[in-house]
Design a protein that fits this description.
The protein is 11% helix and 52% strand. The chain is mostly beta strands and 464 residues long.
Amino acid sequence: MIEMRKCLVILLVLCSSVTLAQQTDDCFVVSKIMVKGNKVTKLSTINREMLFSEGDTICSDMQVKQSRENLLNTSLFNFVDFDWIDAPDGTKMLTITVLERWFLWPIPYLAYADRNLRSWYEADNITRLSYGFDLVYDNVWGLKHQLDLTIIGGYNQNYGITYDIPYVTKRQRLGLQLSTGYTRDREVAYITKDDKIAYFKGEDKYAHESFYAYVMPYYRFGYRNRLFLQLRYDDRSFNDSLPSLNADFANAGGTRFQYFTVSAVFKNDYRDNHNYPLDGHYLELELTKIGIGLLDYSPDVFYGKVTADWYTPVGGRFYWASNITAKMSDSKSAPYFLSQGFGYKNDYVRAFDLYVIDALNYAICKNNLKFEILKPVTKHLPIIKNERFGKIHLALYANLFFDFAYTWDVVIPEGFTTKMANQWIYGTGIGIDFVTYYDKVLRLEYGVNGLGETGFFVHLVAPI
């Protein structure tokens, strides 16, 4: 038995030696890194995303893969190519070729006054549109600073400015975002009946006016982790007629609500592509406190939220994606204008696009099986000479989805009606995702929900 143990130890040592020798043989020294195509972007911004620098020894392809992903996920480049050249002394030289995006965008804005396109179509009122523009400068000074100026008129109006500085300190870890704005809305959601929103429209006065401002410092840990801290101030006023329809729109001081919000969000992002990931994982943890006791009649709401995404190739042209989102609050109720949870933004079950549940506590699971119809390809449009627009990438995916969710501790106020709260709901269906350059995604889906209803839905973001 002792001899056998000695043999096993010797065998393990030999295997380890072979493995180490193989790893050593695969290692190489990066003697030089050259960058081409960065007409605007500073070298310091590019170097910040690299997991290695000149003189470093590389023993893993993962360092190279993640460095390229980091550069693509800055949203500064349409294409990033790594080319290695063997040097005479046995080292390797790297040439990074980037194709910068167009950074200054006066983006025309045309939006519907509902949660999604299907809800706007169901409302059957074409005048419920807002229009204007967003002036976005994505790479101010070549340092990835972002300026966003919003001027939107029409049905609902929004005027705001946001400035984001990703690197405040010399170590390029601390960032800062500042924003302020003013909005006013012709309509405001005031009640939920049969899990659908009913709107109040102000005739002589706007239904809702709001001023906001926030400061958000954030800290970057390594390359894939960020911590965001936000202090926000809101000053909101509602139409005087609303309290007779829903008492939540008034307090002892009238229909004006002033409050501060403090939130902390941690993001761990290992997706290969932020806008349409096929491999990797993503984790987001959020703690938010609305109303911190500094102002009279401010709301008092606290909640925590976790979002976890997982993406993996499953063989051939098939890919799997899953999402779990859970939101929990220490309160069973909140003012109606702060209780929008399930059914808003990306927190919904597909094929239930027309429905909402005023839940502060819910859990959602989304699942997707994708088939790659058209592998990502690069095309040149001969009629467009500018390479920033004429060189594009395209991909097409078919997907089969199944989502389910559960809400709990939902309090049904007087006048509200629901047939979905405090129970399981689910939806399933098929879809087509068209992915192209500048992070654009067109998603077409046909689904059936647990109520037996079917529908066709259009979205402009990835499903998970």
